[in-house]
C-alpha cells in the first residue's frame, strides 16, 4: 500500500502532499521535513530507494523517489509494493501530468515547478486517478489523462462521460501516443480462458 | 537545474499577466493563487512567510463566511486554503465550507469540495459525518462523474461506523456498465475490508465476481483485495491458484489489448501483483506450487531485459521461485537472473539484486559465494543504502567463523552512520550476533552501547543483563567475565562518563551494583563515589538516577559506604520525582538497618532465580470471591469489555432507513475456523524449514568468506570453486527434508485442492473468467421434480455445496449434463415431501407410463440426497431431510359438499391452529389447485386442495413433491385435500415449494401436467420458546452464530421497548422472556428444537438487537423478518 505521496522542491518546500494513512498535521510536517532531510543529501547517482525514516513507520516502509530538475517526487510505501514498479509509477504520474499540462491552453516545454503549484488541484485529480486510497488504480497514461479531461470538460458542457473520451483523444493526439482510450474498446478484449487446466 | 529555475522565473510574469486578463473568472482565480505564491517566493525568512500566510488565511476566512461569495469563488478560496494547509498552517475554519461545497456545488465545485475534504479531514473527524449524506446522494446520482468522485472520497476517507449505510450501494456499483465505476467500487470495498473486515464478510463472493469481470481493469483492482485476503489466510484461496495462473499465462502471452502495454510489456503491474499472490499461495505447498511452475518459467523467459519494468517483473518472479516449493530447474534460472541484477551497473538493480540475495541465501548460501566479489565492492559503496543492504546480507550468512569480521564491519558502519533509523537497526543486529556467538561478547556490547546510544531498543540492554546474570556454562568463566565487566566499567566511569549514553550508564550501574563485590580490592565506597558523580552530572536523566540509587542501595554494606549513601539519600528524599524519592527512601532505610539490608540484599548472595511466580494469581481467589459476594461486578476479559464499549458508543447505523438483511454468519464461521487450522499447520511447517535451513547453514564451512576480508587483499577465484564443490553436498540433503516438511504439512491440513471435486468449481470459475456470469445466475429457478427454491442465497449454496453434489450427481448418472447437475443440487437443500394419499377411497390404479420420466427425475434427486447425506453432515442442521409424511391416518377429505360449493375447507383436526389464507396456485379447465399452510405446535402442515370443477369426469391425479404420490382419483365436483408436514433443513428468509401435478381426464387418458409453487416465510416455522432468564443466560453463551443490527423502535410515548417487543411477539410469535430497564430478552425456536435468542437494547432511539442461535443463518433470516415486522405499520 502507498502510505503517502510527497512532492517538494530542492529547498524542501512542499508542493503537493497526499497521505493515505492518517497523521496529525504536525506529524505530517515532521515527516515532510525528515523525508526531505533524507532525500536531499543523496546524490543523483545513488539508488532511488530508501528505508523509511523513523517517523513514517520503520523498517517495513520504503521511500521511493525520483528527482526531476527542481522537484523531488517521493512515494512512501510498505513492503507490499514493488520498488521498481513504483519507480515507474512515478514516471507515469509525471508524464500524465506533463501530457495534461500540454493539453491545457498554455504551452510549456516540460513540467516545471511552477506548473505544479499553479495547477495544484489538478495534480491532485491526476493522482486520484493513479492512486486511490493507497492502491494503484490506473497505470495507463492515456486513460488517466482522459479521465481528468472528462471532468474538466464538464464545465463547458454537461455532455457526460460517454461523449468525453473522444475529446480527450483529440487533445492528446498530437503527443504521438496510442490514441484510443481504453474504455472505447471494452467490447473486443480478446482474453479467453482455456477450457480447463488439468489440475 | 539552474536553467529550470530561470525558466520558471521568466515564465512567472508572463503567466501572471496572462492570468490577470479581465473577463475570465478561471484565470483570475489562478491569479489570486499566483499572487500568493509569488508573495511567498519573494520572501526570505520563515517569519515573514508566517505573517503573509496568516494574513492570507484571515482574508480567506472573511470571504468564505461572507454570504455574497459565489460557489465559484468558493472553489478558488478552497484551493488557496488547501495550499496554506499544505505549507503547514491550519485552516480549520474552512473545513465546514469544504463540506458545504461538496454538498451544494455543481460537479466542478463538488470536485474541489471533495478534494479539500479528503485533504483536510481524517477518518475520525467529527465533521465527516456531515459528508455521509452527500456521498450517499452522489453515489446514487445519474451523473457518472459524481459517482466517481463519491467513490474516490469513500476510498480516501470514510467513517468506519457509517459503512453499512453506503455498502449496499457500493456493492450495486459492481454491476455498473462502466468499467471505471466498477473498478473504483472494487477499490472502495477493498478499503472497507481494510478498515472494517467484519462489515464486508458477506460479500466475499462479490470479490470473486470482480475477479471474473470481463474488463481486465476491474480484475486488476480485485487483485488488491485478493492479495490482502491471501496474506491473511492463504489456505482458503488455494482453489483460485489455477485461475491466477491462467490469468498470468494470458497476460504474459500477450492476450491483453495493446492499451495495457507499458513500454511494450503487457500490463507489468498486473504481472507483479499476480506473482506476489502466487508466491503467497505456493509457499510450503508443493501441490499448489506445481501448478505454477510452467507460467513462472514462461515469465522468466519472456522478460527481455530492456527496461526497468521488466526487471521489476523479474525480481518478483525470482522471489516467487524462491518462496514456493523449490524446483531445481527454475531455481537455476532464477539464480542466473539474480546474477544479472547484482552485476548490473545500474544502481537500483544492484540494490534489488542484494535484496534478492539476502532473501535467497537462507536457502542457498552458495549464491552468496558466487557473488562475493560484488558483495565486497558493495560494502565499500558510496551509497549508504547499498552498504546497509550488504550488511543485511552478511548478517544472514554469519557463522562462527566470519562473525568477528562481520561485526567489525557493522561497527564501522555504525561509527559513520548518522541516520537514526539505520543505527537502531544495525545495533539490533550486532547485539543479536553478539548473543548468538558469545566470544568477545562484552567488548562488542560495550561498543554497541556506546555507539547505539539511547536509540536502541530496550530489549538489547535487558537481554544483555539477563545473559550476564544467568551466566554461561562454567561458573569460573562467568566469574571472570563479570569481573572483566566490572573493571572495564569502573575505568569507563573514571574517564568521561558524561559522554556515555544514558542506557549504557544504566547498564553500568546495574553491573556495578550486582558484581562489584567480585573485585576484592575494590572498596564499595570508591564505587559509591563514582556513582555519586553520575548523580551530580547534569546530563543524567532521572531514570538513570534511579538506577544509580538502586545500585547504591545494593552497595552500602560497608561502614564508609553507609555514610556516603545516607548523604545522598538525604538529598534525594525530597526530590520532586516520586520514583527518585522512593528509591532514596529505600536507600535511607536499608543503609540504616544493616540487618535488614543483609536479609533483603544478601552481600555476595545473588539473585534467587527460583522465585516462583504464580501467574494464575490463585492467591487472590479469596479476595475475588469476597468482592463478588459484596456485589462487585465479575471480571470481563478485555475483548468483551471492548465489545460492550463499542456497542454503547456505536452510532446509529442506518439513519436513512436502509435495511440490510444480509450478513451471513455462516460465512464468518468457516472463516473463523479455518485460520486456526491454517496457523497451526503453517507454524509447524515454517518452523521445520527454518530449522533445516539453520541446520544446513551451520554445517556449511564458509571459511572463504572470512578470508576474503583479509587486509592483504581479496583471495580470489580459486577458493570459491572449491567451496562451491563443498557446498553442493548439503543442498540435496536439504531438499528432501523440505519435502518432508511439505508432506507433513499437507497431511495435516485438509487442502481443498486435494479434492478432485474442486476441479469442477475451478473449471467453472475459469471458464467464466472474462466471459461474464450470465449463465450462472440464471440457474436459480429451474423446473424440477420438486424443490424449495432458495431465493435469497443462491450464492451460498453455490459456494459450499455445488462441488460435492455435482460429483455425486455424476456418480449417480454420468450422462447428466452439468446444467442439470446444478438443477438437481437445488433439491438437496430444501424441502422434500413425502406424500401420503389422504384419500383412501381413491382407486389405486396403475402407474401412468407418461409420468415415468418425471418420476425418475424425482427419484434421482432423492437418491442423490441419500447418497450425499453423509457428506453434508457438517451442516449442523436438520439431519432429516425435510418434509416427512405426516402419519396422520388417511381420512375422508373429498368433502363432497352437497351444495356445489367447492370452497376448500381445512380438515377438522387442523382447524384449531392458525393458518394462512388459502391461495389459489394454479388452475386449468377442470382443475383448481390451492393451498395454505397451517402452523401446528411442532410442524407446519402444507395443505393442498385439489378441486375438480368439471361436472362429469373423474380425474386421475398424481402430485409430485420430490416423490410421487400414488395415483388417485378425484371425482367430479369434489375437493381432494392433501397434507404435507414440513420441517426445515436450512433456514432461509422465504421458502418456496415447487411441485407438479399430473393428471389425466378421464383416468387412463394421456397425461396433463401442472406446475405450481408455494411460498411461505420463515416466520411460519417460528414458535415462541418459553425459557426462564437463567436458562436464557446459559443458552446465550452456548450459541455460536450471531448477528447484530439496529432496528427502528415503535414510536410510543411511554414504553417504546415494551411496545416494540409486544409487536414482535404478536407478529412473529416471539416469546418475551424479560424486560429489564432498556434491555429486553426474547426467545423463540425454529419449530421445536432449534432455538434462537434475541437480546434487545434501546440505544439512541434505536433498538440494538443481537441474535444468537446454534443454527447458522437463522439469526440473519430472523432479523430480516423482525425488521420487516417493525417497518410495517
Automatic annotation (TrEMBL), chain A:
<dbReference type="Pfam" id="PF01217">
    <property type="entry name" value="Clat_adaptor_s"/>
</dbReference>
<keyword id="KW-0653">Protein transport</keyword>
<dbReference type="InterPro" id="IPR011012">
    <property type="entry name" value="Longin-like_dom_sf"/>
</dbReference>
<dbReference type="InterPro" id="IPR000804">
    <property type="entry name" value="Clathrin_sm-chain_CS"/>
</dbReference>
<dbReference type="GO" id="GO:0005794">
    <property type="term" value="C:Golgi apparatus"/>
</dbReference>
<protein>
    <submittedName>
        <fullName>Adaptor related protein complex 3 subunit sigma 2</fullName>
    </submittedName>
</protein>
<dbReference type="InterPro" id="IPR016635">
    <property type="entry name" value="AP_complex_ssu"/>
</dbReference>
<keyword id="KW-0813">Transport</keyword>
<dbReference type="GO" id="GO:0006886">
    <property type="term" value="P:intracellular protein transport"/>
</dbReference>
<comment type="function">
    <text>Part of the AP-3 complex, an adaptor-related complex which is not clathrin-associated. The complex is associated with the Golgi region as well as more peripheral structures. It facilitates the budding of vesicles from the Golgi membrane and may be directly involved in trafficking to lysosomes. In concert with the BLOC-1 complex, AP-3 is required to target cargos into vesicles assembled at cell bodies for delivery into neurites and nerve terminals.</text>
</comment>
<comment type="similarity">
    <text>Belongs to the adaptor complexes small subunit family.</text>
</comment>
<dbReference type="InterPro" id="IPR022775">
    <property type="entry name" value="AP_mu_sigma_su"/>
</dbReference>
<keyword id="KW-0333">Golgi apparatus</keyword>
<feature type="domain" description="AP complex mu/sigma subunit">
    <location>
        <begin position="1"/>
        <end position="154"/>
    </location>
</feature>
<keyword id="KW-0968">Cytoplasmic vesicle</keyword>
<dbReference type="GO" id="GO:0030659">
    <property type="term" value="C:cytoplasmic vesicle membrane"/>
</dbReference>
<dbReference type="GO" id="GO:0030123">
    <property type="term" value="C:AP-3 adaptor complex"/>
</dbReference>
<keyword id="KW-0472">Membrane</keyword>
<dbReference type="GO" id="GO:0006896">
    <property type="term" value="P:Golgi to vacuole transport"/>
</dbReference>
<dbReference type="InterPro" id="IPR027155">
    <property type="entry name" value="APS3"/>
</dbReference>
Automatic annotation (TrEMBL), chain B:
<dbReference type="Pfam" id="PF14807">
    <property type="entry name" value="AP4E_app_platf"/>
</dbReference>
<dbReference type="InterPro" id="IPR017109">
    <property type="entry name" value="AP4_complex_esu"/>
</dbReference>
<dbReference type="InterPro" id="IPR002553">
    <property type="entry name" value="Clathrin/coatomer_adapt-like_N"/>
</dbReference>
<comment type="subunit">
    <text>Adaptor protein complex 4 (AP-4) is a heterotetramer composed of two large adaptins, a medium adaptin and a small adaptin.</text>
</comment>
<comment type="function">
    <text>Subunit of novel type of clathrin- or non-clathrin-associated protein coat involved in targeting proteins from the trans-Golgi network (TGN) to the endosomal-lysosomal system.</text>
</comment>
<dbReference type="GO" id="GO:0012505">
    <property type="term" value="C:endomembrane system"/>
</dbReference>
<dbReference type="Pfam" id="PF01602">
    <property type="entry name" value="Adaptin_N"/>
</dbReference>
<keyword id="KW-0653">Protein transport</keyword>
<feature type="compositionally biased region" description="Low complexity">
    <location>
        <begin position="676"/>
        <end position="689"/>
    </location>
</feature>
<dbReference type="InterPro" id="IPR050840">
    <property type="entry name" value="Adaptor_Complx_Large_Subunit"/>
</dbReference>
<dbReference type="InterPro" id="IPR028269">
    <property type="entry name" value="AP4E1_C"/>
</dbReference>
<feature type="compositionally biased region" description="Polar residues">
    <location>
        <begin position="734"/>
        <end position="754"/>
    </location>
</feature>
<dbReference type="GO" id="GO:0030124">
    <property type="term" value="C:AP-4 adaptor complex"/>
</dbReference>
<dbReference type="InterPro" id="IPR011989">
    <property type="entry name" value="ARM-like"/>
</dbReference>
<dbReference type="GO" id="GO:0006886">
    <property type="term" value="P:intracellular protein transport"/>
</dbReference>
<feature type="compositionally biased region" description="Basic and acidic residues">
    <location>
        <begin position="888"/>
        <end position="899"/>
    </location>
</feature>
<feature type="compositionally biased region" description="Polar residues">
    <location>
        <begin position="801"/>
        <end position="818"/>
    </location>
</feature>
<comment type="similarity">
    <text>Belongs to the adaptor complexes large subunit family.</text>
</comment>
<keyword id="KW-0813">Transport</keyword>
<feature type="region of interest" description="Disordered">
    <location>
        <begin position="669"/>
        <end position="697"/>
    </location>
</feature>
<dbReference type="GO" id="GO:0016192">
    <property type="term" value="P:vesicle-mediated transport"/>
</dbReference>
<keyword id="KW-0333">Golgi apparatus</keyword>
Amino acid at each position: 500500500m502507498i502510505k503517502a505521496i510527497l512532492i517538494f522542491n530542492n529547498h524542501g518546500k512542499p508542493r503537493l502532499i497526499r497521505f493515505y494513512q492518517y497523521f496529525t498535521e504536525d506529524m505530517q510536517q515532521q515527516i515532510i521535513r525528515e523525508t526531505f532531510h533524507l532525500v536531499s543529501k543523496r546524490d543523483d547517482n545513488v539508488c532511488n530507494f530508501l528505508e523509511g525514516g523513523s517517523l513514517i513507520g520503520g523498517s517495513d516502509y520504503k521511500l521511493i523517489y525520483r528527482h526531476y530538475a527542481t522537484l523531488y517526487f517521493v512515494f512512501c510505501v510498505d513492503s507490499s509494493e514493488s520498488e521498481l514498479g513504483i519507480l515507474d509509477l512515478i514516471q507515469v504520474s509525471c508524464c500524465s501530468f506533463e501530457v495534461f499540462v500540454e493539453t491545457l491552453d498554455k504551452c510549456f516545454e516540460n513540467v516545471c515547478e511552477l506548473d505544479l503549484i499553479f495547477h495544484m488541484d489538478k495534480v491532485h485529480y491526476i493522482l486520484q486517478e493513479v492512486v486511490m486510497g493507497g492502491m494503484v488504480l490506473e497505470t495507463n497514461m492515456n486513460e488517466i489523462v482522459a479521465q481528468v479531461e472528462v471532468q474538466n470538460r464538464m464545465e463547458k458542457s454537461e455532455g457526460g462521460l460517454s461523449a468525453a473520451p473522444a475529446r480527450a483523444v483529440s487533445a492528446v493526439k498530437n503527443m504521438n501516443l496510442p490514441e484510443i482510450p481504453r474504455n472505447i474498446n471494452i467490447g473486443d478484449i480478446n482474453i479467453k480462458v482455456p477450457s480447463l487446466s488439468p489440475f | 537545474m539552474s536553467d529550470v529555475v530561470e525558466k520558471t522565473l521568466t515564465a512567472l510574469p508572463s503567466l501572471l499577466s496572462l492570468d490577470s486578463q479581465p473577463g475570465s473568472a478561471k484565470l483570475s482565480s489562478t491569479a489570486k493563487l499566483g499572487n500568493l505564491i509569488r508573495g511567498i517566493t519573494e520572501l526570505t525568512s520563515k517569519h515573514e512567510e508566517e505573517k503573509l500566510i496568516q494574513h492570507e488565511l484571515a482574508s480567506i476566512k472573511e470571504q468564505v463566511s461572507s454570504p455574497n461569495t459565489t460557489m465559484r469563488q468558493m472553489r478558488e478560496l478552497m484551493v488557496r486554503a488547501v495550499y496554506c494547509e499544505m505549507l503547514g498552517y491550519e485552516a480549520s475554519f474552512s473545513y465546514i465550507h469544504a463540506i458545504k461545497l461538496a454538498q451544494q456545488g455543481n460537479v466542478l465545485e463538488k470536485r474541489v469540495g471533495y478534494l479539500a475534504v479528503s485533504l483536510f479531514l481524517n477518518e475520525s473527524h467529527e465533521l465527516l459525518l456531515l459528508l455521509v449524506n452527500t456521498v450517499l446522494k452522489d453515489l446514487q446520482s445519474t451523473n457518472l462523474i459524481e459517482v466517481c468522485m463519491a467513490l474516490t472520497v469513500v476510498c480516501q476517507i470514510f467513517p468506519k461506523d457509517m459503512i453499512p449505510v453506503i455498502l449496499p450501494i457500493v456493492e450495486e456499483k459492481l454491476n455498473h456498465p462502466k468499467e471505471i465505476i466498477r473498478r473504483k467500487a472494487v477499490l472502495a470495498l477493498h478499503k472497507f475490508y481494510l478498515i472494517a473486515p467484519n462489515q464486508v464478510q458477506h460479500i466475499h463472493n462479490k470479490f470473486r465476481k470482480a475477479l471474473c469481470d470481463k474488463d481486465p481493469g476491474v480484475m486488476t483492482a480485485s487483485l488488491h483485495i485478493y492479495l490482502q485476503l491471501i496474506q491473511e489466510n492463504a489456505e482458503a484461496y488455494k482453489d483460485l491458484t489455477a485461475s491466477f495462473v491462467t490469468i498470468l499465462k494470458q497476460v504474459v502471452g500477450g492476450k491483453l489489448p495493446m492499451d495495457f502495454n507499458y513500454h511494450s510489456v503487457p500490463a507489468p503491474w498486473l504481472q507483479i501483483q499476480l506473482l506476489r499472490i502466487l508466491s503467497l499461495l505456493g509457499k510450503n505447498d508443493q501441490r499448489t506450487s506445481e501448478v505454477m511452475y510452467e507460467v513462472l518459467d514462461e515469465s522468466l523467459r519472456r522478460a527481455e531485459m530492456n527496461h526497468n519494468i521488466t526487471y521489476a517483473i523479474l525480481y518478483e518472479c525470482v522471489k516467487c521461485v524462491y518462496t514456493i516449493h523449490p524446483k531445481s530447474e527454475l531455481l537455476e534460472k532464477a539464480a542466473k537472473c539474480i546474477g544479472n541484477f547484482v552485476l548490473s551497473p545500474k544502481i537500483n538493480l544492484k540494490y534489488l539484486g542484494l535484496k534478492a540475495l539476502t532473501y535467497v541465501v537462507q536457502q542457498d548460501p552458495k549464491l552468496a559465494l558466487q557473488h562475493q566479489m560484488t558483495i565486497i565492492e558493495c560494502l565499500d559503496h558510496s551509497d549508504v543504502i547499498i552498504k546497509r543492504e550488504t550488511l543485511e546480507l552478511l548478517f544472514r550468512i554469519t557463522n562462527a567463523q566470519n562473525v568477528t569480521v562481520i561485526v567489525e564491519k557493522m561497527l564501522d558502519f555504525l561509527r559513520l552512520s548518522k541516520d537514526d533509523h539505520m543505527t537502531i537497526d544495525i545495533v539490533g543486529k550486532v547485539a543479536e550476533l553478539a548473543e548468538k556467538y558469545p566470544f568477545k561478547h562484552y567488548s562488542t556490547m560495550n561498543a554497541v552501547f556506546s555507539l547505539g546510544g539511547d536509540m536502541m531498543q530496550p530489549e538489547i540492554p535487558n537481554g544483555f543483563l539477563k545473559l550476564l546474570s544467568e551466566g554461561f556454562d562454567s561458573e569460573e568463566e562467568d566469574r571472570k567475565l563479570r569481573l572483566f565487566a566490572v573493571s572495564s566499567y569502573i575505568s569507563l566511569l573514571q574517564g568521561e562518563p558524561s559522554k556515555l549514553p544514558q542506557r549504557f550508564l544504566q547498564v553500568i550501574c546495574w553491573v556495578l551494583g550486582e558484581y562489584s563485590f567480585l573485585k576484592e580490592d575494590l572498596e564499595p565506597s570508591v564505587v559509591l563515589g563514582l556513582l555519586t558523580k553520575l548523580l551530580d552530572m547534569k546530563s543524567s536523566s532521572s531514570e538513570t538516577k534511579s538506577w544509580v540509587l538502586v545500585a547504591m542501595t545494593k552497595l552500602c554494606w560497608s561502614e564508609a559506604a553507609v555514610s556516603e549513601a545516607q548523604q545522598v539519600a538525604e538529598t534525594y528524599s525530597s526530590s520532586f520525582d516520586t520514583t527518585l524519592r522512593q528509591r532514596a527512601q529505600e536507600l535511607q532505610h536499608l543503609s540504616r538497618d544493616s540487618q535488614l539490608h543483609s536479609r533483603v540484599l544478601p552481600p555476595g548472595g545473588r539473585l534467587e532465580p527460583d522465585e516462583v511466580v504464580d501467574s494464575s494469581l490463585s492467591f487472590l481467589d479469596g479476595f475475588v470471591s469476597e468482592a463478588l459476594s459484596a456485589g462487585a461486578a465479575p471480571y470481563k476479559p478485555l475483548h468483551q469489555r471492548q465489545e460492550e464499549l463499542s456497542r454503547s458508543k456505536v452510532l446509529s447505523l442506518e439513519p436513512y432507513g436502509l435495511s440490510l438483511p444480509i450478513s451471513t454468519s455462516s460465512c464468518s464461521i468457516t472463516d473463523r475456523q479455518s485460520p486456526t487450522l491454517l496457523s497451526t499447520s503453517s507454524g509447524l511447517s515454517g518452523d521445520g524449514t527454518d530449522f533445516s535451513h539453520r541446520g544446513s547453514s551451520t554445517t556449511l564451512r564458509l571459511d572463504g568468506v572470512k578470508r576474503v576480508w583479509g587486509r592483504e587483499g581479496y583471495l580470489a577465484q580459486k577458493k570459491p570453486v572449491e567451496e562451491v564443490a563443498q557446498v553442493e553436498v548439503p543442498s540435496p540433503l536439504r531438499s528432501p527434508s523440505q519435502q518432508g516438511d511439505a508432506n507433513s504439512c499437507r497431511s495435516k491440513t485438509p487442502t481443498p485442492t486435494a479434492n478432485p471435486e474442486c476441479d469442477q468449481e475451478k473449471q467453472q470459475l475459469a471458464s467464466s473468467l472474462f466471459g461474464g456470469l450470465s449463465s450462472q445466475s440464471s440457474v436459480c429457478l429451474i423446473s424440477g421434480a420438486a424443490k424449495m427454491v432458495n431465493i435469497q442465497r443462491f450464492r451460498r449454496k453455490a459456494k459450499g455445496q455445488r462441488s460435492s453434489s455435482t460429483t455425486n450427481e455424476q456418480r449417480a448418472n454420468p450422462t447428466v449434463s452439468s446444467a442439470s447437475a446444478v438443477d438437481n443440487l437445488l433439491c438437496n437443500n430444501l424441502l422434500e415431501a413425502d406424500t401420503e394419499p389422504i384419500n383412501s377411497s381413491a382407486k389405486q390404479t396403475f402407474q401412468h407410463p407418461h409420468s415415468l420420466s418425471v418420476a425418475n427425475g424425482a427419484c434421482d434427486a432423492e437418491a442423490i440426497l441419500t447418497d450425499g447425506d453423509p457428506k453434508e453432515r457438517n451442516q449442523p442442521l436438520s439431519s432429516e431431510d425435510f418434509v416427512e409424511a405426516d402419519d396422520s391416518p388417511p381420512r375422508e377429505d373429498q368433502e363432497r359438499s352437497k351444495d356445489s360449493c367447492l370452497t376448500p375447507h381445512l380438515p377438522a383436526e387442523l382447524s384449531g391452529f392458525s393458518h394462512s389464507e388459502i391461495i389459489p396456485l394454479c388452475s386449468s379447465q377442470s382443475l383448481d389447485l390451492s393451498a395454505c399452510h397451517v402452523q401446528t405446535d411442532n410442524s407446519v402442515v402444507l395443505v393442498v386442495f385439489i378441486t375438480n370443477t368439471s361436472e362429469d369426469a373423474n380425474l386421475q391425479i398424481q402430485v409430485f413433491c420430490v416423490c410421487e404420490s400414488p395415483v388417485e382419483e378425484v371425482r367430479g365436483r369434489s375437493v381432494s385435500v392433501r397434507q404435507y408436514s414440513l420441517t426445515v433443513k436450512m433456514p432461509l428468509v422465504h421458502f418456496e415449494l415447487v411441485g407438479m401435478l399430473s393428471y389425466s381426464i378421464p383416468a387412463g387418458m394421456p397425461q396433463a401436467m401442472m406446475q405450481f409453487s408455494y411460498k411461505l416465510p420463515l416466520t411460519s416455522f417460528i414458535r415462541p420458546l418459553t425459557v426462564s432468564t437463567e436458562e436464557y443466560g446459559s443458552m446465550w453463551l452456548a450459541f455460536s452464530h450471531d448477528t447484530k443490527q439496529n432496528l427502528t423502535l415503535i414510536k410510543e410515548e411511554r414504553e417504546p421497548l415494551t411496545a416494540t417487543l409486544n409487536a414482535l411477539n404478536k407478529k412473529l410469535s416471539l416469546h418475551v422472556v424479560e424486560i429489564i430497564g432498556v434491555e429486553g430478552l426474547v426467545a423463540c425456536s425454529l419449530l421445536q428444537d432449534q432455538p434462537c435468542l434475541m437480546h434487545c437494547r434501546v440505544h439512541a432511539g434505536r433498538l440494538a438487537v443481537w441474535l444468537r442461535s446454534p443454527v447458522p443463518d437463522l439469526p440473519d433470516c430472523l432479523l430480516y423478518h423482525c425488521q420487516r415486522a417493525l417497518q410495517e405499520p
